[in-house]
Records
---
Amino acid sequence: MTSLAVAPSEAEQSAAPRPGHLSLGKAFALVATHAVLVVGAVVMLLPFVWMFATAVRPPSEILAHPLDPFPRAFHGVENFTQALKTAPLLKFMANGVIVCAGILIVQLLVAIPAAYALAKLSFPGRSLLFGLVIAGLCIPIQVPALPLYIALANLGLLDTYFAMMVPFFISVFAIFLFRQTFKTFPDEIIQAARVDGVGEIEILWRIVVPSAWPAIAAFSVFSVVAHWNDLYWPMIVIQRLEYAPPPLGMLFFTGTESGANYGSLMAGATIITLPLVVLFLIARRRFVQGITMTGIK
Amino acid sequence: MTSALNIQPAAAARRRRIAALGALFAAPAAVLIVAILVVPVCMLLALSFTDYEIGAIAIRWVGTANFERAITDPVFRRAIANTLLYVAIVLPGGVALGLLFALLIHARTRTRGFYEVVYFLPVTTTLIAMAAVWQFLLHPRLGPVNAALKALGFSEQAFISDPKLLLPTLAAIGLWQVVGFNMVLFLAGLSAIPRDLYDAAAVDGAGGAVDRFLTVTWPMLAPTTLFVAVTTSITAFKVFDTVAALTQGKYGSEVLLYAIYLEGFQYFKMGYAAALTVVFLAFMLAFSLVQAFQLDRRVHYS
């Protein structure tokens, strides 16, 4: 309880730092705070550390030293080669890139004009469309999944990239988020551009969209993470391995490799996990922004 | 005089042009919303009253038979019970731990970035890949968790194949992934609290850290807390990936979405799966209603 309540007093200290005059109680609170945070951090990192350690150690070590986080011999080349031989991991990732890029491009091309129309243009059916957007916010993919599957099966479109992407071409969340952002754009600038004879399409893409860049970037990160990691829908429409995105491919990989060779399994998990971790470390601010913006929802 | 008369038709023409452009801009989105959301959801509702199966020749209207069957179906009942138990662990745990870590990290200056990265890392990772890692960590013979238990003198535990431990284990993995997400939301909420409120509280005699938390932080965070609680409930209610990766519904680990997946896409009992999906949708709408009330309240307060 003491450590939980440290936050405000700590904040005061950073406002007026007097490092020499740390009282005993405050020093204790500081130690307790870091103790809790470090224990939490160890739990958070444990799977990553073990994944990587197991991916670079020989199989004999896994049995002999299950508690040692540091590999004694380096067996990484063999494990990673084995992982890439067992399953087409790079193909899975290429599929993931194709699907995420396709989804994101169509999402932006559809949502940006619609959001602009909802924010700045009055047209018949505007409130109906906005009502549908709001209603759509509470419907996850699992709800329309059955009818969409039946339709795709009847059209002979199962096992295609199109089937994996099509339910996500519309993002009501993107429309909602962009509408909120565009609404704050000053009307006077749009009016002035219209008076100058600038076309509405040009106003949208050259003037309004650049000003909404943070929201668009945050949504893009959100979209890529969601669809790179999505398992449910690909599991339904994809049977053939050559179209599998990373999570579905990993599921297959776990099935073939279970128990036999944890070294190559962990090497495979490392390969699958790495792109998003690297993306996160590069674009940390955008990730956090993406989440706090979804918080507006 | 003449110019005023000329402006009005010109303004009307401009309005009409804007309306046409607006309709044009919104048209692709409107078409896709109808094709991907409205029509499928209506079809789903209709399907839930039929016995449709993929490959079957005839389709029959069966009224509420699918829903009656669901109520007595032991697998579905277990799926609901498991899902609710999972939510009952992940919801309070995810909110409390997210808040705890946010409070502790918020006051850090030099180490804040480091802790943020560490706690957020699980959010970004592919859960299927990390489920394989957790399976290894919890392995009865090879995993470090059981090795640590044995070193400390406890007996080893079959975290995944023991039905008593299975759901708490799945919930622990769910917590591991959701805490960082909640922490980021709480951190945003904490930075929005005006500093002078703490000064005012100090003047009013709320000097202790616990007092300050109870009089300022907790009430000011209320909208954030409710939002975090709703999103955590929805995320937890949709638990699927870890079940698909670790048990495939074995050892009595059925959850709602996995039951729907099996009935609809493995056994192709579309009518029955549609009825189960309607139940799932009802839960989603209930969560969203709570959220709508919260938004309402936030508007009144601010």
---
Amino acid sequence: MIVLLAVAVGVSLGLVLQPTVPLDLQPYLPIAVVAALDALFGGVRAWLEHIFDDRVFVVSFVANVLVASLIVYVGDKLGVGGQLSTSIVVVLGIRIFSNAAAIRRRVFRA
Amino acid sequence: MSLLIDLSTDALDPGYAAAAARKRAAGVEPRPRWSLVGATIAAAVLLIVIAAVQTRASAPAAAKSRSALIAAVNRQTATVDQLERSLAALSAKQATLRDATLVSTSAGAALARRIAAEELALGTLPVIGPGLRVSVADASTSTGGRSRVLDRDLQDVVNALWTAGAEAIAVNGERLTSQSAIRQAGDAILVDFRPLVSPYVITAIGPAVDLETRFGASRTAARMRGFAQLYGLRFGYSRASRLSLPAAADVTLHFARPAPAPLSRGPS
């Protein structure tokens, strides 16, 4: 219930306010999105495995987004921003896939 | 490889397991703080929605600016066409008036004949005559860079035609003068800054039979035949008994002036 409400609030906030991301932050947006997806999938899996913890969820979300953006920022300064972005997408993508597979096994028992 | 294996086996944040172990050790089950969790989920969803909105907003903008540019290019090309037409009409009118003024005296008549001859050679008069029509075109299944006609090919063909004795040449109706340039700009070939697209028809006025023989025997023609076989470019030429070439836009020299001593020719 709370989850659906939060999703609805997030979607409507985004659609109503239509915030524009400052140009300086735009390179970090895709990375932040992938990190957010990773945190969400991890939370859902933990919930299904009955080990969900609010603190871990919140901290992992905030930390993932910040660390991912920081790595890309440092990479940009060192001239390897594009490669580091790719590496983050690969690593988090693998995690998202594994978590999605675990969720699928739990929900469909297959 | 161990990093990748870790990645897929420990996909779930180890923090969850640690927290569960702590709870089991403490033996209490604290209620999750739903407001915190809800706020985090809302923030994550907001982030995703922002990214989606951003992508949607910027995609049509790019397409719009592209189509606006294309429209501007087409408009300007049309304006240039129109200006060139009016320039040609005005030049013709000026020439008629000039000739009418000049023929009243015998010296003026001689001058008028000389002007006409010079203009004919310069390319600012439309001309007709027999000659050769050369057609060059991209390969029909052209996707790669190799199966397209390049500016170099057109330059070679034009140079071979001059060498073979052509007196006037036009590429797709663009008359070449002593100031003409043929060059590549991106996907288009520019002849005198006017973009032309395949197929290219090069019309050359000259002694038709000689032109055909000499051009056909030239190295350029041999190379173009080779390109046609290797890459599927289309290349062909045929004699024409009556070709009509348009006039070039006026050739204006901004810096060159007649040298002060016109009598001495050659190295002094």
---
Amino acid sequence: MTEKLNAELERRLKILENPAEQGEDYDAASWTWLVILGVILPAIALVWGWQL
Amino acid sequence: MSSTSQHHHLEDLLEADKNAWPLLKSERTWGSWKLGITLATAAAATWCYIIGEYVGYYLNFDKGFAALFAGSMIGMLIVALAAGPICLRFGVDSIASTKPTFGSRGWVIPAAMQQISIIGWNSLLLIFFAKSTTQLLIALGIIAEGGGKLLLPATILLACSLVFIILLRGSSGVDRISKILVAHVFVGFWMLYIIISQRWGDLTAATPAYASASPLWNYTTGVEIGIVSLLSWWPYLGAMIRMAPNGRTAAVPIMVGMGAPVPLLCLIGIAGILVLQVSDPAEWLRTIGGPTYGIIALLFVAAANLGTAVAGVYASAIGLRHFPAFERMSWTTLLMLAIGPVVLVGLVIPELFFANFGTFLAFIGLAFAPLCGIQITDYYFLRKRNISIRWIFSNGDHSGYWFTGGFNIAAVAAMVAGCGTYRYLLNPVTYESHSPYEYVTASLPAAVVAGIIYALVTVFFNKPAKKGGY
């Protein structure tokens, strides 16, 4: 059974079902930044702060 | 592109950014700077002083900053990994990103959490702004001490009206106001410079008022406050980053624009509470520099809170769009619905709400940590990044995300287990804790336990029963 969606929403879904039309997930460069800023930097801050 | 097709494109975008519909590649035009500025404006508000105040109860200035910085960046990373990928790939908001995990009807659980969180934060910001205004007017002799009873509700109503007017244009309203209000971040750093340069001696000698006998417990609590504060950005994040075309554009703005300003501006609150026993800069700047500094601080508070409230109400309104009853509602009415509860809290229970901020903050950690654990486990480990945008927007039992009656039992069980874990490790009301809280915080284990329970129920129940489109 198919669901009747709003015509504009249906148009958008059809386009976005094509992977080429989707946005991109985090790539290698993004992951590098995420790890630096979200793991390495906090780890350094934790060690530094504890020694103060 | 002809002017007619350009006009149609603009109309589609204006329509889409007031809906929860997915945005197309051509509509997602925000670059790193624009996104970073918008995220910074959303994140940097007077909640930073109150967050800083809570850290200043347990830690001194240096240690407080280190713990808060570490916790904030960890919390931001968790949110970026949880809601980020689906929002960035399909141009959807945070609520839409929960449909593969909570189900075609179960998304109402995170939606309710989103509404409570945003209403809570916005109420806090506007009450803070109204209080600061009253304080300043008393200091300037415009109203008498004990006067201004009508000023608080009037200021809240004025602020809510401004938010409403700005948001009539949808996401472009958020963008425009951010470009102007981002200046407040720099004013915040100036205020920090003032207190550090004039009271450095007092600051280094100050002792935290409620520090426990265990230095480790104090330090961990500083980290925990940082994590839960940034976890509360989950409801805001999707509505903002869906305007960016890809992960590369968004990763650094999320971490630097939304994550880093919070611990930096929290220093104002830590310094204020340690030296002057008050975290509101509108009050302590007046003490240090007289009425002129007080006015500057108040303008800062107004700008900071307005920018954040605009972003919050926008995210809240987009979240409401997922409810069938609000799907076709006019944008104007929807905005009124999103702002209405904030007005009510601000007018009816401002003092009660303001006095229980710590509990509110802990409840956010209790709720959003498991949610993030569930999303990360599902996207990276169980679905291996395979998401159907059609199933996200299909509400019937033919959707792969229908699960059981529209609800995913795995997500519900994982939320219960995650909340239970948090509650065991740290009581959000009394701040009593159980080991190993002092080594692992409460949010991180809550996220991990929720993720494990979610994976177990999915593997042993949903997958064999062919539920969830795995």
